Amino acid sequence: MLVAGFATRHVAQSAHRAGYAVYAIDHFCDQDLAWCTEDCVSFDEIADLPEKIAGLAARHPVDVLVVTSGAEAIGATIPLYGTPPAKVERFLDKLEIQRFFEDLDLPVPPLADGYPMMVKPRRGSGGWRNVIAKEEEELRRWEDTWPDVPYIAQELVEGIPSSVSCIADGHRALAIAVNRQILRGEGERAHGFAGSLTPFAHPLAGEMISCAERICAASGCVGSVGVDFMAGNRPWAIEINPRFQATLDTVEMAIGESVFAMHMDACRGIIPAERPAARRVAVRRILFAERDMHLSVDLAPLAPRVADIPWPGTGFEEGNAVVSVYGCGETVAAACMDLEQSIGAVRRLLPPGSVN
Predict the structure, then answer these.
(1) Backbone φ and ψ of 335, nearest 5°
(2) Which residues contact 31 (CB under 8 A, 6 or more apart)?
(3) Are residue 23 and residue 144 in the same domain, yes or no?
(4) Integer Cα distance of 183 and 118 in angstroms
(5) CA angle at 219 for the pair 182 and 163, rounded to the nearest 5°
(6) Per-residue pLDDT, 187
(7) Both 128 and 260 in a single domain?
(8) Strand, helix or coil for residue 112
(9) Same domain? 189 vs 248
(10) What is the distance between the alpha carbons of residues 93 and 329, in angstroms, rounded to a whole number?
(11) Domain span at residue 163?
(12) Has residue 76 got a pLDDT over 90?
């Protein structure tokens, strides 16, 4: 199994637990990616990926390719298990997603014709370049910051950032979890992804499940597919993610089953007969550098309460992700308390005020 993309640890780890021999091509190549792979290769630019894939496949007996964020549209001679590039391309463009949702007559934030508006690049994931523009000057500032980036602007809708994780076979889809998405909430990257909580028991959870299953079935996507929502006065459909999502960790921790195994089955035309029940509440938080820093300690002894574990000596610019931290419990309150204990353990090893 070769897993390729910008960040692959969560998928490689799931594949390893499912019994596969895993190779990875990843931008970071953190410690815990090395723990669960036979070999991992780093890259700088997405354009480098095809050559990296070909090189690794020439050195190792790779049977299957699975891609993550950034690699969805990359073709290869290795059999791909997931949504084919020709199908996935539409769902990498947020304007095309907007039109797809409108064609399905779903509640989707309309394209804006006034302020305030949510400005988003048409391509890309993670939400870190999304911004609310309350007046023309703020929109012009965004355009000056990203002069060559096409974007869409939607009417601003209120709600809680959420998502539904689905398994699809190209024709049918089954939702396996509803998640609350944790965003950074402040600064220039306020709308960037910073973690998740699973399951998310929102009054609109049932409506989001029905909507997500309809979206994924109509999309023709295969394997693990996610749909983002804003859970407000209605479930506003925001995006479809035709790949493994960053919520994978908390979904697996909550349901106690292998999403990777479900993904592989779906690529063979088999989806679960029924929705898995959540056994516990799981929460993940990503900690970010508060200032430019070099990591002088080893966080590996804190595993499995932490993941995406950088190598000692790694440098981080202010605002960069440093490490993922987890909590589990029978209730949301218990899981969040457990998370705070894990965060405390990380902070005790680092200089005061270095991560948040």
Answers:
(1) -65, -40
(2) 300, 309, 310, 311
(3) no
(4) 15
(5) 15
(6) 78
(7) yes
(8) coil
(9) yes
(10) 37
(11) 89-267
(12) no
Q: Classify strands 321-329 and 281-288 as parallel, antiparallel or unpaired.
A: antiparallel
Contact present, 288 and 184 (Cβ < 8 Å): yes
pLDDT above 90: residue 186? no
The whole-model pTM stands at 0.96
Per-residue model confidence as pLDDT tens digits over 138-154: 999 999 999 999 999 99
The amino acid occupying position 73 is A
Number of separate domains in the chain: 3
Query: How is 233-267 classified by DSSP, letter by letter?
Result: SSEEEEEEE-S--TTHHHHHHHH-S-HHHHHHHHH
d(CA 301, CA 236): 41
In degrees and rounded to multiples of 5, residue 193 shows phi and psi of: -65, 135
Which of 195, 197, 226, 223 shows the shortest CA–CA distance to 211?
Answer: 226
Specify the residue for token string 């990380």.
Answer: 346
Tens of pLDDT, residue by residue over 31-52, are: 999 999 999 999 999 999 999 9
Q: Count other C-beta atoms under 10 Å from residue 132's C-beta.
A: 14
Yes or no: say if 232 and 90 are a contact pair by the CB < 8 Å rule: no
User: Do 123 and 170 fall within a single domain?
Assistant: yes
Gap between the Cα atoms of 81 and 88, Å rounded: 13
Cα 182 from Cα 339, distance rounded (Å)? 13
Task: List, in sequence order, every beta strand (DSSP E) within the chain.
Answer: 2-4, 23-26, 39-42, 65-67, 117-121, 131-133, 151-155, 160-169, 173-183, 193-198, 222-231, 235-241, 281-288, 293-294, 306-307, 315-316, 321-329
Backbone φ and ψ of 345, nearest 5°: -65, -40
Coil, helix or strand for 75?
coil
Question: Domain ends where: 80, 99, 122?
Answer: 80
pLDDT, tens digit, for every residue of 149-181?
Answer: 999 999 999 999 999 999 999 999 999 999 999
Half-sphere exposure of 177 (CA within 13 A, CB side): 33
> Cβ neighbours of residue 100 under 8 Å, at least 6 residues apart?
90, 91, 218, 219, 240
Measured distance CA(271)–CA(208) in Å, rounded: 19
Strand partners, 42: 26
95 and 205 assigned to the same domain: yes
**Whole-number Å distance between alpha carbons of 288 and 317:** 9
CB contact burial 114-126 (16+ within 10 A = b; e otherwise) = eeebbbbbeeebb
